[in-house]
Amino acid sequence: MMKSGLEDVIAAETKLSDVDGAAGRLIIRGVSLDDLVATSRFEDVAALLLDGLFDEHIDAASIRKQLGMARAALFAHVETADAALLALPPVDAVRALLARVADGEDFATAIRLMAAPAVFLPAVLRLQKGEAPIRPDASLSQSADILRMLTGRVPTAEQTAGLDAYLVTISDHGLNASTFASRVIASTHAGLTSSVLAAISALKGPLHGGAPGPVLDMLDGVGKPENARAWLSQALDHGERLMGFGHRIYRVRDPRADALKTALKPIFASGQADAGRIALAEAIEAAALALLKERKPDRPLDVNVEYYTALLLDALGFPRNSFTGVFAIGRTVGWIAHAREQTLDGRLIRPQSRYVGPLPNAA
Ligand code: ACO
Asked: What angle do CA 323, 329, 332 make, to 5 degrees?
């Protein structure tokens, strides 16, 4: 029997991450998500994921230094962003600029690919507003520099910590659609740039990484906590899905949702964002969970990573049309790690299909 959507099919062995959908647990290279978010910056999780997958010795300090230098060098590509490229949605514009990174399977290519979306997304967003892009500062951490290139201001400690928590939380997540795409391309030895381009193309779909923008639309549509149930009921009556809820693997709450909810609290508590948004989000979450239980009693549907992502990225100053691009900045390291694991350990991925079309006429 073919499994639609390859549900429950094991298509790879990995030492990178484990998603336990029944327990609501995520492990990244032996470390639980909660511990990782509490102790790591983006550069730490990059070192953790990439360790042993390249010839080079990899540690967080060297990754930070190399990412800084790569960001500075990649800024030259921003000048190639013409009107046609800037008319694209931000994630598509970033993908087009990413295609300028030469393909390769070495660590230098991996570094360039991790640095590229961090430079291109803020630059594209500024150019689309008619503002000059801001040159990278190689001395900063990846998160601090992204926020500085986005807003033109040195971020607060809470903002940098918030973005680090986000990038760490979404760095890797088993064999999701974009990671599978990355591994399929890697299995042909096409190169890391090709893997990342395929992965970002899979990520942008609303059933995968394209949901947090619509989550914010939903929050705005509901407006006040007391409107939540009526607004959501109407959406479900129209056959719509509630964005930020449901997951193929998790049958309980997505552990990343609470990691992000914890990460955003210091930003709201210190008055750097409107605290009323958290109350609104919590009211919508409660109403949505009650309604989904009533309407889909046989399908456990709970909050997923995209829900609090929307609140966090909004509070950090990212426009909602850029959220998928920020997701790509964080997930690129996971895509690269999986691509390398596939290249080092795996064979060409080439499954079979069953033909169910017409047969030629027997003459
Ligand atoms: N709102 C309302 N109903 C839902 C939702 C939702 N968010 N999610 C699933 N359902 C319903 C479906 O309509 C379906 O009902 P039916 O059997 O009566 O037709 C049932 O639950 C099962 O849905 P599937 O699509 O088979 O579940 P699947 O595992 O394929 O989908 C997915 C997972 C795509 C995430 C889905 O829950 C969804 O569309 N959620 C909203 C979009 C979203 O939040 N995407 C981000 C996911 S997180 C990530 O990828 C990073």
From this structure: 130
